[in-house]
Amino acid sequence: MSRITAEARVLRLEDVAPDDGLRAVSEGRGDVPARGVERAAANDARRVLGLANISLAFGGVTALRDVSLDVAEGEIRAIIGPNGAGKSSLLNVVSGLYQPDRGQIRFGEHAFRRVPTAKLAAHGVARTFQNLALFKGLSVFDNVLMGLAHRVSAGFLRQIVGSPHARRIDAENRAAVEEVVSFLHLSDVRERIAGTLPYGLQKRVELARALVARPRLLLLDEPFAGVTLSEKQELSEHVRNARDRFGTTILLIEHDIGLVMGLSDRVAVLDYGRKIADGTPDQVRADQTVIDAYLGVAHEDETELAT
Ligand SMILES: Nc1ncnc2c1ncn2[C@@H]1O[C@H](COP(=O)(O)OP(=O)(O)O)[C@@H](O)[C@H]1O
Ligand SMILES: [Mg+2]
C-alpha cells in the first residue's frame, strides 16, 4: 500500500471511533496554562494531542513500534532519543507528512488515521523545521506575517482587496506580528532581510512565525540544532516564555538532552522506534533503560545523558 497515494484513504474517525471518554479540550486560551506533570496527569480531558499505538515501517525498517503518547494543555513535552530512534518520523506522523501503518492521532476530540496537513493550522497546530524554512529574501516582519497567510484565502483576498474589511484584517494581522516580534525581542531587526541574520536569530524568527497565529500546539523539530550555546539558552528561554505568556502547548523533539531536561515538564524517550521511558526529567534521567540506550554502543551518534 503506497503511503504517498493514501491521501484518499484518510479517515476521519470521530464519527466511528468508540467514545473513549475523551472530552473536547477547552477553547479557553485565556486559561492559566497547566504547569508541570501533576496537572498534566491529573486532567486527561485537557489532552491537546494523543497518539495511540502508532506503528510505522519503511520497507524492512521499523521507524515506530506501538508508540502511545499524550500531550496535556500548556505543558512543554519533549521526545528525545539517539539518532535513528524515530523522533522525526513521529513528528511527521503528527503533522501528517507520514501516515502510520497502525494507530490513531487525536487533536482534542478529532481523531485521525492520517492528519490532514493542510488543515493543521485550522486545528491550531503550527510547526518549525529542523532545517530553517524561512523566506530568506524577505524581511523579518514579512516572514512573521507569513505565519498568518492561512487565515485568508488568496481568492477571498483578491475579491476584497482595498475594502474596509480587508484593511481591518490587514491591521489586525500587523498588530499580531508587532506583538510577537516585540515579545521575542526582534524589534531591532524587524526590517532586516531574514537571510542576512545570524543563524540563532533566524531560528527565533521561525519561532515568531510559528507563534503569530497563537497555535494551541506548537511542534518544534530540533529547535536547538546548529546554534551556539548562548543562542540555545536564549531560544530555550523564549520557548518557555511563549508557553507562559500564551499558554501554548509545546511538543519538541531534540537531540540535546541537557537543555531539554531543564526546559520540559515531561520527557518521552524513543529507542529503535519504541518508547522506552516517559516521565518527569528526573524520572527519565534515573531510568536504567534510558541510561543503557544512551550509553550503549549500538548507536553511532552517542549523546551523554547530561544532568
Ligand atoms: N522517509 C523514509 N524512508 C525510509 N526510511 C526512513 C524514512 N524516514 C525515516 N526512516 C528510517 O526510520 C528510522 C527512524 O528515523 P528518524 O525518524 O529519522 O529517526 P530520528 O529522527 O530519531 O533520528 C531510521 O532507521 C530511518 O532510516
Ligand atoms: Mg531526526
Write a compact overview of the structure shown:
By secondary structure, this protein is an alpha/beta fold. It has helices at residues 36-42, 87-94, 140-146, 154-160, 164-183, 199-211, 229-246, 257-263, 281-285, 288-295; strands spanning 47-58, 61-72, 76-80, 102-107, 110-112, 125-127, 217-221, 249-254, 266-271, 274-279. The protein folds into 2 domains: 1-124 and 215-307, 3-Layer(aba) Sandwich (Rossmann fold); 134-214, no CATH class.
List the helices and strands and how they pair.
Blueprint: H1 36-42, E1 47-58, E2 61-72, E3 76-80, H2 87-94, E4 102-107, E5 110-112, E6 125-127, H3 140-146, H4 154-160, H5 164-183, H6 199-211, E7 217-221, H7 229-246, E8 249-254, H8 257-263, E9 266-271, E10 274-279, H9 281-285, H10 288-295
Parallel strand pairs: 3-8, 3-9, 6-7, 7-8
Antiparallel strand pairs: 1-2, 1-4, 4-5, 9-10
Helix pairs in contact: 3-6, 6-7
The structure holds adenosine-5'-diphosphate and magnesium ion.
List keywords for this structure.
six-stranded mixed β-sheet; binds adenosine-5'-diphosphate; 2 domains; disordered C terminus; binds magnesium ion; Rossmann fold; alpha/beta; 307 residues
The overall average pLDDT, rounded, is: 81
Q: In angstroms, what separates the terminal alpha carbons?
A: 44 Å
Q: CATH H-level name of the largest domain... which superfamily?
A: P-loop containing nucleotide triphosphate hydrolases
**Helix content percent band:** 25-40%
Whole-number tally of structural domains = 2
- Strand tally is 10
**What's the level 1 CATH class of the largest domain?**
Alpha Beta
Count, helices: 10
Which regions are unreliable across 5 or more consecutive residues at pLDDT < 50?
Answer: 1-43, 297-307
Q: Strand content of the residues, in percent?
A: 15-25%
Strand order of the largest sheet: 6-7-8-3-9-10
